[in-house]
Design brief:
The protein has 223 residues and is α/β, with parallel strands linked by helices. It has one domain: P-loop containing nucleotide triphosphate hydrolases (Rossmann fold), CATH 3.40.50.300. 33% of the residues lie in helices and 29% in strands. The strands form two sheets. The chain has a six-stranded mixed beta sheet, sandwiched between helices. Strands 2-1-4-5 form a four-stranded antiparallel beta sheet. Helix 3 packs parallel to helix 5 and helix 5 runs parallel beside helix 6. The protein is globular, with a radius of gyration of 17 Å. The chain starts with a strand and ends with a strand. 40% of the residues are buried. The structure holds adenosine-5'-diphosphate (ADP) and magnesium ion. The site of magnesium ion (MG) has 2 residues, from helix 1. Keywords: ATP-binding, Nucleotide-binding, Transport. This is ABC transporter ATP-binding protein.
Length: 223
């Protein structure tokens, strides 16, 4: 699904050049469940943003199904994100004034679906994460684990091919973490490719493949 070759990403920070990625070559197969580990500042979020077409590399190629994200137009990247790639963050990133239903529905905005189809898909996604009875609740009325499940529903409602998650359990206690982990495993078993940045060894243990990103370079960790 992904093939990265010679990927670097440098940032300019107060006149200084920061090499967030210093030459990454890696492939990620369709259907895989990959955990990305490594120290803070190692380049994990930068790597995930490149996979998610949220950013472009400074040099090198990021192929998604053979097409180079580095060379795609802004509109093409937008279409890719709208249809193929789901993103989940540590802080859930839900809109506090909207209900769970409305938060999930937002992801369908760019797809131009008919209203009925749109509503059916939102309810199906909420049911998929076990929150069909919480559709009218706002984030403040839900537990952390439930909020993250809404965020996952928002990511999967567009039926993406890959789900990218940056520390999805970082703000959750152990029981809520297990709830999210079980959900991620179920989605992967259903065929969704998962790439999960995590500091949590319980999450990394369940992945099929573990990568370590340190000082902007990547290596495979033995299982
Ligand atoms: P991680 O997620 O592993 O903690 P990041 O990918 O966030 O690492 O960051 C890698 C390096 O790049 C760090 O040194 C960080 O300070 C730097 N960096 C990340 N994003 C930016 C940015 N937008 N501007 C400048 N420097 C950045
Ligand atoms: Mg990070």
């Amino acid at each position: 699904m992904f093939r990265l070759s010679g990927v670097t990403r440098t940032y300019r920070q107060k006149g200084r050049i920061v090499r967030a990625l210093a030459g990454v070559d890696v492939e990620i197969a369709t259907g895989d469940f990959v955990a990305i580990q490594g120290p803070t500042g190692g380049g994990k979020s930068t790597f995930l943003q490149l996979l998610g077409a949220l950013d472009r590399p400074s040099t090198g190629a990021v192929l998604f199904d053979g097409a180079d994200i580095a060379k795609a137009s802004g509109a093409e990247l937008g279409r890719l994100r709208a249809k193929q790639i789901g993103f989940v963050f540590q802080g859930f990133n839900l809109i506090p004034t909207l209900t769970a239903h409305e938060n999930v529905d937002m992801a369908l905005e760019p797809l131009g679906l008919a209203k009925g189809e749109r509503s059916a898909r939102v309810l199906e996604a909420l049911a998929h994460v076990g929150l069909e009875d919480r559709a009218d609740h706002r984030p403040g009325e839900l537990s952390g684990g439930q909020q993250q499940r809404v965020a996952i529903a928002r990511a999967i409602v567009k039926r993406p091919r890959v789900l990218l998650a940056d520390e999805p359990t970082g703000n959750l206690d152990e029981s809520m973490r297990d709830e999210i982990l079980a959900l991620l495993e179920r989605l992967n078993a259903e065929g969704l490719t998962l790439v999960v940045v995590t500091h949590d060894s319980a999450v990394a243990k369940r992945a099929r493949r573990r990568l370590r990103l340190d000082k902007g370079t990547v290596r495979d960790l033995a299982r």
